[in-house]
Amino acid sequence: MAEVTITTPRGVRLAGTFEPGQGTRGVLFAHGFLSDRHSSLRFDILASAYRTAGFATLQVDFSGCGASDDAVVTVAGEVEDLRSASAWLTEQGYPVQAVHAHSFGALVAMHAQPADVVAMVLTGALTGPMNYPWDQVFSAAQLDELEEHGVMRVPDDNAGSAREFSVISRQTLADYSLIDQEAIFRRLRVPTLFVYGGAEEDAELTALTREGLPLVPAPTRLEVVDGARHGVRDRIDAVVELALDWFAEHVPHERAG
């Protein structure tokens, strides 16, 4: 596998891991909130399975995360990151692409929908407005920093990461909480599989998505993995099976036309 650097239009350098595949098909990964390209190893496991199936794989750290350049973490920034990564993958000879995204990364993927992406698998996707108790997530000192400066630092706790902290803003929290489900669902143009854990922590997310799916013009399916937690990392075998079946159905071996 090769370590690569991808530069976005705004000049931010993204760190990534790329492995060539057979043919012209590739899978692009989009990690969750303040995570990195490994996504607590779930993406490493999934990437291996996709490579066995013949796909090239590209795992990237979003800007402000992992080994990528510093930046305030927002949906808009990560949308640009994902589109830049997709364009880079196309330049390497893989114009038929699928996205595998998790949690906040799934929201980014739905907003970004790069032109060469033909199907997506989204685990633990955020698809509608939710009321998050931020005072239970962040310390009083962090929230005071956000109030005074408009941004706050969040320590990086990803295993093996050399990054000290990521930076988020008021916009980041709004991106997380104020999601226009109708807007993103009505413009979802590619076949998309939504996968959730069956444990209580994913219940609200699952209900939101189930309620909104009739708005989506593209083929969609919702799968719940019994007993699994958010992101289904504890049942990654089930995710692999569901994802490979979905991509086998919806990702052609060559681009039509």
Features:
Rossmann fold; 35% helix; single chain; alpha/beta
Q: Which topology does CATH recognise?
A: Rossmann fold
**Global shape:** globular
Poorly predicted sequence stretches spanning 5 or more consecutive residues: none
- CATH level-4 homologous superfamily: Alpha/Beta hydrolase fold, catalytic domain
- The number of distinct β-strands equals 11
User: Per DSSP, what share of the residues sits in E-state strands of 2 or more residues?
Assistant: 15-25%
Overall pLDDT score: 95
Number of structural domains = 1
Short characterization:
The protein has helices at residues 42-52, 75-91, 104-112, 134-137, 140-149, 170-177, 181-186, 203-212, 236-250, and strands spanning 2-7, 13-19, 25-30, 56-60, 72-73, 96-102, 117-123, 151-155, 165-169, 192-197, 220-225.
Structure description:
GO terms for molecular function: hydrolase activity. This is Alpha/beta hydrolase. With 257 residues, the chain is an alpha/beta fold. It has a single domain, classed as Alpha/Beta hydrolase fold, catalytic domain (Rossmann fold, 3-Layer(aba) Sandwich), CATH 3.40.50.1820. The chain has nine helices and eleven strands. The protein has helices at residues 42-52, 75-91, 104-112, 134-137, 140-149, 170-177, 181-186, 203-212, 236-250, and strands spanning 2-7, 13-19, 25-30, 56-60, 72-73, 96-102, 117-123, 151-155, 165-169, 192-197, 220-225. Helix 2 crosses helix 3. It is globular. The model has no long low-confidence stretch (mean pLDDT 95).
